[in-house]
Specification:
Catalytic activity: (6S)-NADHX + ADP = AMP + phosphate + NADH + H(+); (6R)-NADPHX = (6S)-NADPHX; (6S)-NADPHX + ADP = AMP + phosphate + NADPH + H(+); (6R)-NADHX = (6S)-NADHX
Number of helices: 18
Radius of gyration: 26 Å
InterPro entries: CARKD, Nnr, Ribokinase-like, YjeF_N_dom, YjeF_N_dom_sf
Number of domains: 2
Cofactor: K(+); Mg(2+)
Bound molecules: ligand NPW, adenosine-5'-diphosphate, potassium ion
Number of strands: 19
Strand content: 15-25%
Pfam family, one: Carb_kinase
Structural class: alpha/beta
Largest sheet: 10 strands, mixed
Subunit structure: Homotetramer.
Oligomer: single chain
């Protein structure tokens, strides 16, 4: 499923109109879908709040459709009508013919059961200003159901940020394509339930789109088959290089992630003892009885690394092993490498390539970027400049190779526990070992871990789900996907 920003949406709109489909037809389609959703709420009294752009035009068309079906509906216009769009003016004229009721002031919004927010859509420019600031406060403090047209007023469709103030919708009805702002917090929570309406947009533009929503369907397409006539080396081997005296649990979660999701051989190499074999005796385990890896340890693990198809380096490795990590990244840059946690910072010092994946959470990424992350483009541009794949881990995670990006929205707070990331990196390495591309492996792994965490949270509670529990239940999602 495609995801667009405001510029792409405008291009699609213009291209469709240039093919001869009139704007008023698109507006009628948009309004009709909003009207049906408002009707489902069984309202007695409806207020449509309309801005003076095309989002307002949609709002006016919704009011007219509802009025025509006998609903008690009123319209309140916000903004300067001198600058109004043609779509707005045209709809206002039609509303007058249909005797739609316009009001000049709003007293108590609680007199209405449903408010339709047709104030500003993808045309939001800069921060909200003027009388709208107070109106948004008023809307957010009332008890009525709020249905936003296209995107809640005040949410940037490009970043999901609140542009000073934003309407909190119960339902957002959007047209043709999801916008970035629906998927990134806080826009994701301000949008409420998102309904996507089908539109007659010209699909020829889709070849230019490069952002996608990760779906179960996509995972079904890319999940590897397991040949019956096979042996362990068909499913790849992984060197998990992880852990330190401080963090002896992280390597366990990474190795379990790798071993419990289908890899053929998992070598776990840690500086300090960790009881992985008590959890899973099939892991091939080595430790060096020391606190941290040192540069000259590489010689001792060379054999295992060279036998491996994939290297996972970083979980729990601490800050004292940077020279050791750097040497591995340089020497084995021809191998697929998942670079997680404390190893991520080391990429600043090495030449990177598309065999590599970094898996930063927001804090780790900010350190790499040396500034706040403003938008999805910051992550995509970093990926392009560094020529490296990125899994940006957040409440909505982004998986990108710089050219194409996927949004994963399956996670929730059940995952907000130390160790989830270690598990994720182990599962990613597993699917790379099994022959998937780095990006596909990241899609599969984040889907499996997030969805399992989500489901366990529903069956138990989000308070109690742990990364170990998720690791042990990865089979459930795989059973559903495979249908066996
Ligand atoms: N795309 C499509 O194919 C289709 C699009 N459709 C619909 O069109 C919508 C896009 O319409 P759009 O381009 O006219 O912009 P829109 O969202 O109404 O915003 C402009 C208005 O907002 C105002 N305004 C802006 N910033 C502001 C601020 N900071 N603070 C205060 N005010 C601010 C601005 O005021 P001005 O700056 O001009 O005074 C102007 O009045 C889209 O979301 C969808 O609903 C559907 O009909 C189906 C087909
Ligand atoms: N509230 C949330 N909603 C969705 N995903 C979440 C949430 N909290 C955490 N996650 C996911 O859980 C993982 C946590 O990773 P990370 O912070 O690296 O953990 P650790 O380093 O402790 O192993 C990430 O993949 C992140 O996207
Ligand atoms: K809106």
């Amino acid at each position: 499923m495609y995801i667009v920003n405001s510029k792409e949406m405008k291009n699609i709109d213009e291209l469709t109109i240039s093919k001869g489909l009139q704007e008023s037809i698109l507006m009628e389609q948009a309004a009709f879908s909003v009207k049906e959703i408002v009707e489902d709420l069984n309202p007695k009294k409806i207020l449509v709040m309309a801005g003076t752009g095309n989002n307002g035009g949609d709002g006016l068309a919704v009011a007219r459709l509802l009025k025509n079906d006998g609903y008690d509906v009123q319209v309140y216009i916000i903004g300067n009508e001198e600058n109004a769009s043609y779509g707005f003016v045209n709809q206002k004229d039609i509303c007058k013919e249909y005797q739609v009721d316009f009001i000049d002031e709003i007293k108590d919004l609680n007199n209405f059961d449903v408010l339709v927010d047709g104030i500003i859509g993808v045309g939001l420019a800069g921060e909200i200003k003027g009388e709208l600031l107070d109106i948004i406060d008023h809307v957010n403090s009332c008890n009525c159901k709020v249905v936003s047209i296209d995107i809640p007023t005040g949410i940037s469709s490009d970043t999901g940020k609140i542009m000073k103030k934003a309407i909190k919708a119960d339902i957002t009805v959007t047209f043709g394509y999801l916008k970035i702002g629906h998927l990134l917090y806080p826009g994701r929570s301000y949008s409420g339930e998102i309904k996507l309406s089908q539109m007659s947009f010209y699909k020829g533009y889709e070849k230019n789109l490069k952002r996608f929503l990760l779906t179960e369907e996509k995972i079904r397409d890319i999940l590897p088959k397991r040949p019956k006539d096979s042996h362990k080396y068909n499913f790849g081997s992984i060197a998990v290089i992880a852990g330190s005296k401080e963090y002896s649990g992280a390597p366990i979660l990474s190795a379990l992630g790798a071993q419990l999701s289908g890899a053929g051989m998992v070598y776990l190499i840690t500086p300090s003892y960790t009881p992985i074999l008590e959890h899973e005796p099939s892991v091939i385990y080595t430790d060096f009885n020391k606190n941290y890896f040192e540069k000259n340890d590489l010689i001792k693990i060379k054999g295992k690394i060279e036998k491996s198809d994939v290297i996972l380096i970083g979980p729990g490795i601490g800050q004292n092993s940077n020279d050791f990590i750097k040497e591995i990244l340089e020497k084995y840059s021809h191998k697929k490498i998942v670079i997680d946690a404390d190893a991520i910072g080391v990429i600043k010092k090495v030449k990177t390539n598309k065999n590599m994946l970094i898996t930063p959470h927001a804090g780790e990424f900010q350190k790499l970027l040396k500034k706040e992350i403003e938008s999805i483009e910051d992550i995509e541009n970093y990926s392009l400049e560094k020529n490296i794949n990125v899994l940006y881990k957040s409440t909505t995670s982004l998986i990108t190779d710089g050219d194409n990006s996927y949004f994963n929205v399956f996670g929730n707070d059940a995952l907000s526990k130390g160790g989830t990331g270690d598990l994720v990196s182990g599962v990613i390495a597993s699917y790379i070992a099994q022959g998937c591309t780095v990006i596909d492996s990241t899609l599969i792994a984040t889907y499996l871990v997030y969805k399992t965490g989500y489901d366990l949270g529903i069956e138990n509670t989000n308070f109690t789900v742990t990364p170990l529990q998720i690791a042990k239940n990865l089979n459930r999602e795989l059973i559903k996907l495979r249908g066996d």
